[in-house]
From TrEMBL:
<keyword id="KW-0963">Cytoplasm</keyword>
<comment type="similarity">
    <text>Belongs to the universal stress protein A family.</text>
</comment>
<comment type="function">
    <text>Required for resistance to DNA-damaging agents.</text>
</comment>
<protein>
    <recommendedName>
        <fullName>Universal stress protein E</fullName>
    </recommendedName>
</protein>
<feature type="domain" description="UspA">
    <location>
        <begin position="4"/>
        <end position="146"/>
    </location>
</feature>
<dbReference type="InterPro" id="IPR006016">
    <property type="entry name" value="UspA"/>
</dbReference>
<dbReference type="Pfam" id="PF00582">
    <property type="entry name" value="Usp"/>
</dbReference>
<feature type="domain" description="UspA">
    <location>
        <begin position="172"/>
        <end position="300"/>
    </location>
</feature>
Length: 314
């Protein structure tokens, strides 16, 4: 978390209360760094006014940008007056998510925050098409913010993949835990929990192999996961009672544990992709994301390659 010093906040175009900006200010006040409050805007009517010259259209466009800059400055004036380092930038761009991703890449932002939508405080977070584009394609970690204060003495739930011997899974697990612990150190006594889901026995196996004992199999799988979890938690001195190894599908287990411990944020890892495969962040992550009811932080590994076809973290 300490290296998140160059934060981009993707603002909501019509909201007076900007939850993502509020969360970014919370982080910067505790961790240092700077914020760019960023808003892409576009009005098609400005592009088709044939009676106006190109210069006149450009002037109208600039006037719209200036109005939005003034609006953002008004929204941010309490933060600015208190000394928070906030740069305000409004750009004219047809596609909101493309503008945000281009800004991240061009200015080396190391964290993107954007508000997620929700029906009410008890409902799961709703992700718009723009949110999905950002989660899938943004090159830096993406923090989707639910519209509620960061809980004092809150909890972060880190989803780790303990089912694979692949080196990249092990390294990504360590990165997720390390960055979550760094986040906890700068927030109000945030408690870091780890969770992993292990599969149950397929009914077909039990039917086709009468001598197969599903109880023995399930116990063996759980034992393997518990050993792997112990190895991971001990590397970071995380107490056993803050780890959760549960039977079931990740999209069921992770939201259920998050709700049970009243997590303020779920941290997921996804294998980064470029090129054509950038349209996917991984089946597991996409299923989990649709069911959580709190903030979400999505982190990619340090090294990604265009032909990487590995799935995401559980």
């Amino acid at each position: 978390m300490a290296h998140y010093q160059n934060i981009l906040v993707a603002l909501e175009p019509e909201k007076e209360d900007q939850a993502a900006l509020r969360r970014a200010v919370y982080l910067v006040r505790r961790n240092g760094g700077k914020i760019k409050a960023f808003l892409p805007i576009f009005d098609f009517s400005y592009e088709v006014t044939s009676l106006l010259s190109q210069d006149e259209r450009m002037a109208m466009r600039q006037s719209a940008i200036d109005q939005r800059v003034a609006w953002i400055r008004h929204l941010s004036h309490h933060y600015l007056e208190s000394g928070v380092n906030i740069e305000i930038k409004v750009v004219w761009h047809k596609r909101y998510h493309e503008a945000v991703i281009e800004e991240v890449a061009s200015f080396n932002h190391d964290l993107l925050l954007k508000a997620a939508h929700q029906q009410d405080r008890l409902e799961a977070v709703i992700f718009t098409p723009i949110d999905w584009h950002l989660l899938r394609k943004c090159p830096c970690p993406v923090w989707m913010v639910k519209d509620q204060p960061w809980p004092e003495h809150g909890k972060a739930l880190v989803s780790v993949n303990l089912s694979s011997d692949e080196d990249f899974h092990d390294e990504l697990n360590k990165k997720l835990v390390k960055e979550s612990l760094e986040l906890a150190a700068f927030t109000d006594s945030t408690e870091v929990h780890l969770v992993s889901a292990y599969p149950s026995t397929s009914i077909n196996i039990a039917i086709e192999l009468p001598e197969f004992d599903p109880t023995v199999y399930n116990n063996a799988i759980r034992g393997q996961f518990l050993i792997a979890m112990k190895s991971l938690r001990q590397q970071f001195s995380i107490p056993e009672e803050l780890t959760h190894v549960e039977k079931g599908m990740p999209e069921d287990v992770i939201p259920a544990v998050a709700e049970e411990i009243e997590a303020g944020i779920v941290v997921l890892g996804t294998v980064g992709r470029t090129g054509l495969s950038a349209a996917f962040i991984g089946n597991t992550a996409e299923r989990v994301i649709g069911h959580i009811k709190c903030d979400l932080l999505v982190i990619k590994p340090d090294d990604t390659s265009e032909d990487d076809d590995h799935d995401d973290e559980d």
